[in-house]
Amino acid sequence: MTARDWLAATFSLDDHDTDFRTEALAGLTTFLTMSYIVVVNPAILAATEDKPGIAVPGYTVSEVQQMLAVVTILASAAAILVMAFYANRPFALAPGLGLNAFFAYTVVGVMGVPWQTALAAIVTEGVLFIVLTAVGAREYVVKLFPQPVKFAIGSALGLFLAIIGLEGMGVVVSHPDTIVTLGNIAQNPVALLAVLGLFATLALHTRDVRGAIILGVLATTAVGWAVASLGVAPQLAPSVPDPQYDITPLAGAFVEGFQHVEAFGFALVVFTFFFIDFFETAGTLTGVSQVGGFLDEDGNLPEMEKPLMADAVGTTVGGMLGTSTVTAYIESATGVEAGGRTGLTALVVGLLFLLALAFVPLAAAVPLYASHIALVVVAIIMLGNVSEVDWNDPTHAVPAGLTIIVMPFTYSIAYGIAAGIVSYPLMKAAAGEYEDVRVGQWVLAAAFVVYFFVRTSGVLATL
């Protein structure tokens, strides 16, 4: 039996109507669109003179960032390999954006919790997830998601991807009066090349060119490097720092963190990490599954406990190694759109992460302005999912609409889902359709109300 035959049998490629080449291309596509986390996660988590985070005595900021880059790769690979071989799904995982900022700025910065204790909270959350997933509790909660919310998640994720992508391309920038506005594209070589690359990629997609997304990303990268090498626009070429592979100051630091636990504050940190990660992962899996056609007629992902277990294992391993919560990535949609249907796609992503260990500084070789083109393309595709919602029924339109609006505008998958979950039973009650709401959905809505109060009332800042 050849290696390809073994892979085809292991991942049931024939049953999923796919092949090795398609899965490999999908894995490469996903990796390229999310590889930025290897650089961004360390930049957020590492403490500097201007911001809180992880600081290791005797090591420079650059060295700590390189440690975190290695840890990011290892934690991501661990979770992705579980996803590949146990869940056989094309989803990729890595330390979550937003969760890492909460770790550094709120937990370590505002609350003054030692970063070692914050890691202990991550490990605690991960173990809770493993237990809850093993007994089927996480899957049960996900099934409580109202149908209109499930159908809206894909489009909401599309808008969320669009904002991330356009910002990374330099097309959308912040503005003090209008919050966001159009960047000075004609004056910015990065934004100009990104826009040209975007339209080239969309043209390839329109012509049904196989691998259009990856071709567009790679072509844009190649043009950027070529122009930069001529000295015309050096900012098009990313800087590549020297690697730092020693992670011993981070690995196992969570054990020390348990020695400095203040019960209430620690429980609140675990609770917040738990809530955000739980619903961001569930929302991402549902949204990406909708793109891939993985959902059943009720809008549920069959055997969802398996990809949820990959998330739980990744979070636990990540906390033990020294990084914030690992979660499923919406960038997985790029690989699914490229044809990824099985765990072989995830395996390719995981192997590419491990391969990046040998070239840690080159992990960001594909610049953000190029990789984020894929996010915008996929965002446009995902908007089509909005047609699944019954917009003629207000009890469906309101939860779906709030999910789609709140998610991108709060820059949070969890908040968007929460808005939909809270509004669904309220709208059903207003319409007198009490029998359509399960008890668990009322409980879930109440839990989110409590969460929003804790998150927005300033309780965290007073601890």
UniProtKB/TrEMBL annotation:
Matches recorded under PANTHER family = XANTHINE/URACIL PERMEASE C887.17-RELATED (PTHR43337), XANTHINE_URACIL PERMEASE C887.17-RELATED (PTHR43337:SF1)
Provide the family line: Belongs to the nucleobase:cation symporter-2 (NCS2) (TC 2.A.40) family. Azg-like subfamily.
* Transmembrane feature ranges: 25-47, 67-86, 93-112, 118-137, 149-173, 185-205, 212-237, 257-276, 344-363, 369-386, 398-422, 442-461
Keyword Isomerase recorded: no
Name of the protein: NCS2 family permease
Q: Does the keyword Transmembrane helix apply?
A: yes
Q: Which UniProt keywords apply?
A: Cell membrane, Membrane, Transmembrane, Transmembrane helix, Transport
**InterPro entries recorded:** Azg-like, Azg-like_bact_archaea, NCS2
Its cellular-component GO annotations read: plasma membrane
Compartments where found = Cell membrane
GO terms (molecular function) for this protein are: purine nucleobase transmembrane transporter activity
Q: What is the protein's membrane topology class?
A: Multi-pass membrane protein
Native organism: Salarchaeum japonicum
Question: What broad class describes the main subcellular location of this protein?
Answer: membrane
Top-level division of the source organism's lineage: Archaea
Q: Which Pfam family, any one of them, does this sequence belong to?
A: Xan_ur_permease
